[in-house]
Design a protein that fits this description.
This protein is mainly alpha-helical. It is built from 6 helices and 2 strands, in the order ααααββαα. Bound molecules: heme C.
Length: 124
C-alpha cells in the first residue's frame, strides 16, 4: 500500500509538466499512428516510402492538411487509384493528419477536428 503514494506523486508531476495541448497532441498522434497502420500502411508502407511505382511515397508530400483531409476521405484517381475512406470520421482524419505531420512534416502541432470538418465541407 505504501508504494502507491510515491507512484501517484510521480505520475502527478509527470503529467502536470505537460500542457493540456501537449497531451492532446500525443493522444492524436498515437491514435493516428494506429489508424495509419490500419488504413494506409498496406500501400504507403510504415515509413511512408510507398511501393515501387504502384503507390507513391508520401514522405515529402507538400499537400496542405485540408487537401490531405479530403484525399483521405474521398480517395484519389490519377494514374493510380486510392480508395475512399467513407467510414473514417472527422476525428479519425484529424488524428491521421496530425500523425503524418509529426512523422514526415516535423511539425508537432495538432490538426484539430473542427478544421477537418471545415475542410471536408469544401472538398473539390
Ligand atoms: C489501396 C492502396 C492505398 C491505400 C490503402 C491508401 N493509399 Fe494513398 N495513394 C494510393 C495511390 C495509388 C495514390 C496515387 C493516386 C493517384 O494516382 O494520384 C495515393 C496517393 C496518396 C497521397 C498523395 C501523394 C501526393 O503527394 O500526391 C497521399 C498523401 C496519400 N495517398 C495518403 C494516404 C493515407 C493517409 C492513407 C490512409 C488513410 C492512404 N493514402 C491509403 C494508394 C493508397
Amino acid at each position: 500500500m505504501k508504494n502507491y503514494i510515491p507512484i501517484a506523486f510521480i505520475a502527478f508531476f509527470f503529467f502536470s509538466c505537460q500542457s493540456k495541448e501537449e497531451i492532446t497532441q500525443q493522444q492524436y498522434s498515437v491514435e493516428g499512428m494506429a489508424l495509419y497502420q490500419t488504413h494506409c500502411e498496406n500501400c504507403h508502407q510504415a515509413d511512408g516510402s510507398g511501393l515501387r511505382n504502384l503507390y507513391p511515397s508520401i514522405k515529402n508530400s507538400n499537400l496542405s492538411p485540408e487537401t490531405l483531409a479530403c484525399l483521405i476521405k474521398n480517395g484519389k484517381k490519377g494514374n493510380g487509384f486510392m480508395p475512399a475512406n467513407a467510414k473514417l470520421q472527422a476525428l479519425d482524419i484529424a488524428e491521421i493528419v496530425t500523425y503524418m505531420r509529426e512523422k514526415w512534416g516535423g511539425k508537432k502541432q495538432i490538426f484539430p477536428v473542427d478544421s477537418v470538418r471545415l475542410a471536408l465541407q469544401k472538398c473539390p
